[in-house]
Write a structure and sequence with these properties.
Shape: elongated
Largest sheet: 2 strands, antiparallel
Radius of gyration: 20 Å
Structural class: alpha+beta
Number of strands: 2
Strand content: 15-25%
Strand order of the largest sheet: 1-2
Length: about 110
């Protein structure tokens, strides 16, 4: 499955030297190493969002630290979307009940 880049148009562009950054492009999904040093239980903390966003957009953390709150909210939702549960797989309904020790199906 191919990843479609996610582009976020910034409400307030970020000044980077003489340039203005007007959008952030998430070019790939996160992998394990992108989460090094990030607390998944505190993923909504700005420093964790900035760390993961920096790794997925190749944007320096100090620049991301200058985002307005509206942009941070949008970026947070994008990062969190990578960690939402996907469709459930495996048995459902009565199939999920293990057989009883006497070999009869559990109800």
């Amino acid at each position: 499955m191919t990843f479609e880049p996610i582009v976020i148009e910034l409400v307030k562009p970020l000044k980077f030297g003489k340039d203005l950054v007007t959008k952030l492009e998430f070019t790939r999904e996160p992998v394990t190493k992108d989460l090094y040093g990030v607390s998944l239980t505190a993923l909504d903390m700005p420093e964790n969002i900035v760390t993961v966003t920096s790794r997925l957009t190749a944007t320096p953390p100090p620049l991301l630290g200058e985002m307005c709150i509206d942009d941070l909210t949008t970026v947070t939702a994008t990062v969190e979307s990578f960690f939402l549960p996907g469709p459930t797989t495996g048995p459902t309904g009565s199939e999920s009940s293990p057989p009883s020790s006497d070999g009869a199906e559990a109800n």
